From TrEMBL:
Highest taxon listed in the record's lineage: Bacteria
Alphabetic keyword roster: Membrane, Transmembrane, Transmembrane helix
Protein name, entry field: Transcription termination factor Rho
Record's signal peptide: none
Transmembrane regions listed in the UniProt entry: 7-27, 59-78, 90-107, 127-144
Originating organism: Hymenobacter crusticola
Pfam families for the chain: DUF4293
InterPro entries: DUF4293
């Protein structure tokens, strides 16, 4: 049913993945030149570009993966009558979340090369939200599996 604990976990997962689209994922500031490079889910760009800074890099795969993961989680909530389908969608969501983390890490590496290689950038909240979503997905799958085991044990008693 919709009021189950796994539905709460899946809703929180969808909120976390949707917020990845709006919060910064990674940033790097060069103290000497004052340039700041910020990675969002849709672009990797300088905050205050100088005359010779490279153009912004489109990072739409991060946004697409995060949005798709949030959509799968919301769809998974309403598949409560088929727990096996929910488990399969949970596996799909696991792959999507891992791909989001991988794409974020890849584009942060691209950003490292764009601005003063000697300095290290910092990961922002947008990088850690998919990790939270991954944990929520694992918890939801655990409770879905527990419900399936409970239903099977009740079928054996009949």
């Amino acid at each position: 049913m919709i009021q189950r604990i796994q539905s709460v976990f899946l809703l929180l997962l969808a909120i976390a993945m949707a917020s990845v689209i709006f919060v910064p994922i990674w940033s790097k500031t060069d103290a000497l030149t004052g340039q700041e490079l910020v990675l969002h889910a849709t672009k990797l760009a300088f905050v205050n570009p100088a005359s010779q800074t490279p153009a912004a890099v489109n990072t739409w795969p991060i946004a697409a993966l995060a949005a798709l993961s949030a959509a799968v989680a919301l769809f998974e909530i309403f598949q409560y009558r088929s727990r096996f389908t929910q488990l399969k969608l949970g596996l799909v969501n696991l792959v999507l979340i891992a791909a989001t983390i991988g794409a974020s890490y890849y584009y942060s590496g691209v950003g490292e090369q764009m601005l003063n290689i000697k300095l290290i950038g910092t990961f922002e909240a947008g990088f850690y939200l998919p990790t939270l979503a991954l944990i929520l997905n694992l918890l939801a799958n655990r409770f879905i599996r527990r419900d399936e085991q409970l239903v099977r044990s009740m079928d054996r008693l009949r």
